[in-house]
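Re: the request from the purification team.
They wanted to know what the chain is likely to look like in 3D before they choose a buffer screen. I agreed to run a prediction and write the result into the notebook, where they can find it.
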Amino acid sequence: MEIVEAAAAAQLYTVVRGDSLSKIAKEFYGDYKQYPAIFEANRPMLEHPDKIYPGQVLRIPALG
């Protein structure tokens, strides 16, 4: 049951020009250092945390 609840808590975010995973983490979590959570939630679509592109839709997992 916990897996379903965690999946339901995830949000989607469309990357825009100038974004980075750390900037997105700061926006959603209030802490840029949480960017690995976003990176891991979007593997294997993302091969490297610095390689995101405008138009990509990322899953933003709930922390906790």
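For the purification team: The chain has three helices and two strands.
Please add any questions underneath this entry.
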